## 1
Amino acid sequence: MILKKNLPRLSSLLATLLFSTMSIIATAQTYPTKPITVVVPYGPGTGNDIIARIIAQKVSETSGQPMVIDNRAGANGNIGADYVARAQPDGYTVLIASTSSVVNQFVTKDSRLDIAKDFTPVGLIGSLRNVLMANQALPANSMKELIALAKEKPGQLNFASGSAATHFVGMILKFVAKIDFTIIDYKLTTTGMTDVASGRVELLWTTTASALSLVDTGKVKLLGVTGPKRSTVVPTIPTMIESGYPELDISIDFFFLAPAGTPAPVVAKLNREIVTALNTKEVKEKLASAGVEANGGSPEALAQYIQADMARWARLVKETHYKVQ
């Protein structure tokens, strides 16, 4: 009797669910029908920005809709991330995130987000080496010489940081090398790069993509690069492992995130567009010239990566007794 009484309500719920499912499938089949905005949480010329523009150009060609870049820098990348987390979960606003986005959760008070809960993984893009860049006039041409110089002049060298993640890397360098220097925080990495080139500060930890254009000017030099083997982009620069600092072997991975709740069929369609772009010769060559090792991957693989990376950084923060900034 009770079952009969609730049949109309059950039928209505099933009908609503069926309609909703069919609507999502239909939306995914036609997606995208308007421009897709890629939010870059850092300024122009940074690794996130360079990679986003390379991929956006190709996806714009293949998807039939423009992929537009929107730079929203500030608060260690959290302004852009927060904007995407609050956006409509329809696949038309996505974030090009990176290892820094994960690190922020553990090292900055600015972060109010949980990467694993506030976003839907879309797919990995690739990895980029990090380099320790120095002003050309600095009397040190290797990690060994830098450490010796820092010990001779404790607290006198300046390390420019453009994010909470690079600030933390600076602290790791202090910790493992048992040296002291001053960390100067910048709102934008590009401003710190300009100051290193001009000689206002001596050191900066950044990506190969960001550093290469300055290296070509002859105003800066590289003291070390991350990765298990030497970079093909800067083959004469020893790795941090070669220099005896495996703790600094911290490369940066890039990936796309959508707001939590973005329908799986839409995420799958966007992932296919991105992976297709990554597999083209044109995109591979452009990324390689910036030092990016393209990999791609499924949303599921990205979800696993994020969980593992969160565990890694939580451990490093604990081991170094890092004080949240």
Note: The chain has twelve helices and eleven strands.
## 2
Amino acid sequence: MNKATGIYIHFPFCVKKCNYCAFLSFNADESVRREYANALMKEIELAGRSFSGQISTVYLGGGTPSVMDVALLSLIMKKIRSCFDVKPDAEITIEANPATLGIKDRVVRAKLTAYKYMGINRLSMGVQSMDNNRLTFLGRIHTAENVERDFAIAREMGFDNINLDLIFSVPGESTSDALADARRIIDLGPEHISCYSLQLEEGTPFYRMAEAGEIREISDEEDRKTYHEVVRLLRAAGYEHYEISNFARDGKRSRHNSLYWNMSDYIGLGLGASGFVNGTRYRNLTDLDEYMKAVSEEKLPVMEEHVNSAFDNISEAVFTGLRRIEGISYSDAVSVYRASDGAEDIKGNDEEVFWTIFKDAREEAEKFSEQGLLIIDGEGLRLTSEGIDISNTIMSCFV
């Protein structure tokens, strides 16, 4: 198992909240962003004191990190490097939404040049659609033309690892609409594409509109049809389908997100950030004032934490591992279990140990296998393309 460690840093600021967004994000003026950056750097110092390993990935997420002043981002990246041992070949990603990099071409070039100077080597852009009417409906502030311009300038500035996000199953959207979006994104030629079906999350404008009957949620049947058509299109275009929602070419899988799927450690920094370190999952405070107060008192701003049991660890390894197209091997799952505090000394080979731990799940798992939804063999388990459609149901067997 890959035991590399990553860092996730949350920037909760956005120019405007999108109609579908349930993430921890909000608009704030420059003074608040500056105050937050100072608090974040203090948290970085505090977290760095108790960590001695190497960092293989850094992910600046949000929110919209690209709304931050580049001088503040530069200070944050310097603080990360001074407090943690960041590997020379670390993957360092920033979420940089179109239209937040700058209005004028020269401003976009200057910002991207600054990112390169900080060591950022991967861009993840929240495109979501290449149809301007749909972008307006989603509440996005950019246009398809912004996407094309920003992508071209990023290439000009030397970025050779770019992810573009796509949302499908938007109310009112057909499968052919989603495929048109995907084709325009493919034509740009990013190394990585993430595709997600839109979920109506409670508390969002879209959720309220659906409750009021103003919009109609796409049916499960329509959603699954669109998903499989998009998958076929991306595969035909040379993208490796390596995780339920993620596609890469030229070997450019997301190294940071892969940490989540293989039970590696990651340190969560910033408002509401989650982390997983030495078998403990935690989440930071979500109230900005409380977060600021905690770090000012030299306390890590942890709101809640859970120490995983050995079963928690192997259960999560299977749950996240089944998101990967290659699935989860018995050896990887069992190694997670055996490395956990409190693991029982179960005799047998990895397959025997696995099914001893999951003896109560075996009958149901084998039914899914008989239905052609789950492949179970001598190496491990993986979902079929049909099984992906009910992935959460299958994964829940192992929880």
Note: The longest helix spans residues 30-48.
## 3
Amino acid sequence: MNLTISYVIISSGEDIYIEQALMSIWSCRRFNPDIKITVVTDGPTAKLICLYPEIEQLVDEIKVIELDKNFSNFERSRILKTRLREYIDGDLLFVDTDTIFCDKIDLSDLNADNIAIVEDIHIESLKSHPFKSVVERTLKSLFDSEIKGDLPYFNSGVIFYRDTEEAHLFAEKWYKNWESGKNKDFQLGKFDQTSLLKTLYDNPGVVKPLNGNYNVQILGGIKYLASGKILHFFNANWGRDSVHPFLNKDYYRKIKSTHSLSEENKEDVLKCKTLFSSPTFIIGSADVPFWISPEISRLRLLLDTPFWGSMTKIILRGLNGLARIHKRFGKS
């Protein structure tokens, strides 16, 4: 198989995307010394990447795509990601920058006819996904579509594409759906997974599930952690920075200050599965909807502020008192 591992990097220089990519690319090359690695980027980001000589040494190609200067960096990132299939020859494995390789890619695992992707937070069906109602509302708002039947909901952080006509056509439709959704409602449509779901719904059978080891979403897929080949540390603010150093932006700011990886950084990459904080508690599937609910998210925000944090703690103590009274006198 003529496989290319491909990254999309768009950066303003103030964010941490290049630093994350450097760590991911280093880990990829460490475990896959002979595989082709390509970075797809735009002109302004290419100039920034030049400040990181390790990236140029580790990759085989930096492909620069010129884009309209009026596009925001977020738009540029999504344009290159959804159109990536047209920029790369041969089979390709797209990998997000916030990932770490922990093992060699087994080409026998990449046996899809056209496209293979890991399910979002390793849940086989949208029907069982904790964000099902949000996803369905967004799909309805952007595309006036409703899910009929049981569909998978994929995480777009790692995507395997064959170099087939079906894969190319699917990617073209994905880009058009993303553009349509973004133009209708930028805040809802700028992310790429809802447009991916819309494309999947309109083109059944093209995308197959990929082995979960190739996109271990660490905040929702602990069952794959031990055997995982690619760990995915989300850029989104889901979870606390203290869970793992790779979820903390300060870790990458230190790399930014030197434009290179230290020996300590490389050691952290190689032992990344052991760097989780202690104690770290596991939340089972029955409790996940509660802990990721909007109410709990807002409560966490309140607790992080001086005045409202104090008021919230007083209210929580009151609720705890009510719970004690209910436990003692309430009916079961």
Note: Residues 293-329 form one domain.
## 4
Amino acid sequence: MSENQTPEFEQTGERVAQAYRDIQAPLDAKEQRSFEPKEEDPKKSHAMQAGARPYPAPPFPEQHQAKPGEEYKLDPAPMYDAPFYKGSGKLEHKVALITGADSGIGRAVAVLFAREGADVAIGYLSEDTDAQETKEAVEREGRRAILLPGDVADPAYAKAAVERTVAEFGRLDILVNNAAFQEHVLDFEDLTEEHFDRTLRTNLYGYFHMAKAAVKHLPNGGSIINTGSVTGLLGNKDLLDYSLTKGGIHAFTRSLATHLIEKGIRVNAVAPGPVWTPLNPADKLGPDVAEFGAKTPMKRAAQPEEIAPAYVFLASPQTASYITGEILPIIGGYNGG
């Protein structure tokens, strides 16, 4: 166990991870029967490439993971280190606490925050191997990092994570609410109350608990960034509960932003479309994962390093001092017609 971990919350985190798997297993079994071989479309157009380096596009290898999902098992590995991104001190001497920072968007945000000068507290559920890699990535940028395993749905964890961050680093300037639970259903009647409750507790209660614990420590000029989703803007027929929570996060962002103006704390949200992270192979089964992101106008999913700069932009007082209550979609384009 790392000296930076919070052992009193590790057992809770693993219990919740098992609860995630218990919800996932029967839905996986039912869906597996629905797959039939698909013929490759010869007219399929190429994915759009407009970044600093090429990014992978479907088809991906078929793969599936038990929840909560682990980045080190993904093929191909998500691209998070943004080698062409040059830091310029936008977050110099600041401290950030990021939930769901072990992998995916959270890891990429942690790396760029560190590159811009911030120390980072890494909140996560139970994925120790991934979290350790994020910690080492932050340290390679010359900044400090601590590990905070536990369940954001637990208000005691939220309070302890914030207080540990302040105790270790002396302050807290930025909270990124990013942890999420997602599990799709093909039939509405398969959405159990337990499943629905778990989604709301992680995605809504978790954001609420973390924000409430952080606000008393955030200074004038502090920032809260919530991870929303395109599903909260457009809906998703198979992610009824998840879409509900993401729409709620968008509304919470706008409301909390207005509430905290007098304290000088800005609150914004990023609403990504499909991003290649463990969240998705731990939701979809292999055949769907293979085509993940193919239906976007760009014909591919984003890589985490393509999303993370938006968090830097919204966190920094140098770039977003007059921006609060905004929802920034990053979804790979809109379908016309």
Note: The radius of gyration is 19 Å.
